[in-house]
Amino acid sequence: MNTAGASAPAADLPPATGAWREGDPPGRRQWHRPAGPLPLEAGGRLPHAEVAFETWGRLAADGSNAVLVLHALTGDSHVAGPAGPGHPTPGWWEGLVGPGRALDTDRWFVVAPNVLGGCQGSTGPASLRPDGRRWAGSFPRLTQRDQVLAEAGLADALGIERWALVVGGSMGGMRALEWAVSRPRRVAALLLLACPAVASGDQIAWASAQVHAIRADPHWRGGDYHDAGAGLGPHAGLGVARRIAHITYRGAREFDARFGHRPQVGEDPWLGGRYQVESYLDHQAGKLVRRFDAASYVVLAEAMNAHDIGRGRGGTRAALGRVTARTLVAGVDSDRLYPLSQQQELAAGIPSADGVRVIGSPWGHDGFLIETGQVAALVRELLDGVRDPAGVAAGLG
């Protein structure tokens, strides 16, 4: 990964932030811009809480065919579609959304917001405050409850009283769960993928190390780096955070089978070269620093650490008991970050859940993104069971 090497051509250096900013091509994005401030769980208010989002399909007249798709930590609203102006990467669930696919856009109206605190169009650290300066390191701490409150405002603006399905994995699964617990009447069906009821000590530890890596970068500057020149953002710290995270996202079996002890082609680890697995992690880090924002990474990682569905609700079991949506809970058999035991806790506590569906995959936690065929089968199972009061499939009545 090229960070801020003085000898590198300016064109090769990543910008200080990979965040989308005003003046960049909008791509497929739309915006919900509420008139008033957003109250925050920890106190205070966010003066502007704009939510960028994308949609596919057409909303039925009665609003009954809407599906909410919630992304993970470094995802965004671009669930489907090619990379292009305004969208640095192709859709992250491309095989799931479109005509004839599990989320059939001839039948369903699919909505995907960029999470509040993110960096691809929604209000976050790279956004401007009312005084015209960037939020930067002064951006307030958020929780999933704050993020879902902002998403509920989007749903209201779109005229969606009840989602036919809310689906999310990892961080997106945390928000999907929050939707179903805090607003049970607004969720008909729920798909929770590779996520917990509460962040564990192990998960907090991994995320904390990533946050410390970013804040230790000399270019962090307390989070006030967004308008620095190319190569002058906290790229080294964000790159280390990505390396740490990616190790937890993938499985040991994959790393051993794919890379083993082999050196990178043309390099000798004994002479300062890299092993193949190191080269792979370097590649992942280099890609992220060009499309993401370090301060958003910190805000979202800390929100994930704060995830506790039972906080102030009488504990986990009492909170899960609020869910009325038809629910499927699924985990990945090789996931070492969000192990199946956490999905078993969810399934045991949600009255309408029918055990845990196991996604078989060698890819670890990322299996929920990669094994689209298995995820598609779960989506179809849930949507086939969604009926309106007249007994007609939602969106077709």
Tell me briefly what this model is.
The protein is α/β, with parallel strands linked by helices and 397 residues long. It has helices at 144-158, 171-182, 201-216, 235-249, 252-258, 276-289, 294-305, 316-320, 340-349, 367-370, 372-384, and strands at residues 30-32, 38-39, 45-46, 51-56, 66-70, 109-113, 165-169, 189-193, 326-332, 353-359.
Notes on the structure:
With 397 residues, the protein is α/β, with parallel strands linked by helices. It has a domain at 17-199 and 306-384: Alpha/Beta hydrolase fold, catalytic domain (Rossmann fold), CATH 3.40.50. Helix content is 31%, strand content 12%. Strands 1-4-6-5-7-8-9-10 form an eight-stranded mixed beta sheet, sandwiched between helices. The chain has a two-stranded antiparallel sheet with strand order 2-3. Helix 1 packs across helix 2, helix 3 (201-216) packs antiparallel against helix 4 and helix 4 (235-249) crosses helix 6. The chain is globular, with a radius of gyration of 21 Å. Residues 1-7 and 388-397 have low confidence and may be disordered.
Features of the shown structure:
31% helix; 11 helices; single chain; two-stranded antiparallel sheet; disordered N terminus; eight-stranded mixed sheet; Rossmann fold; alpha/beta; disordered C terminus; 397 residues
Query: Within the largest sheet, what's the order of strands?
Result: 1-4-6-5-7-8-9-10
CATH superfamily of one domain: Alpha/Beta hydrolase fold, catalytic domain
Number of strands: 10
CATH architecture of one domain: 3-Layer(aba) Sandwich
Taken from the alpha-carbon principal axes, the silhouette is globular
Number of helices: 11
Provide the low-confidence segments as ranges.
1-7, 388-397
Query: How much of the residues is beta strand, in percent?
Result: 5-15%
Mean pLDDT: 93
Helical percentage: 25-40%
- The CATH first-level class of one domain comes to Alpha Beta
**Structural class of the helix and strand makeup?**
alpha/beta
Distance between the termini: 53 Å
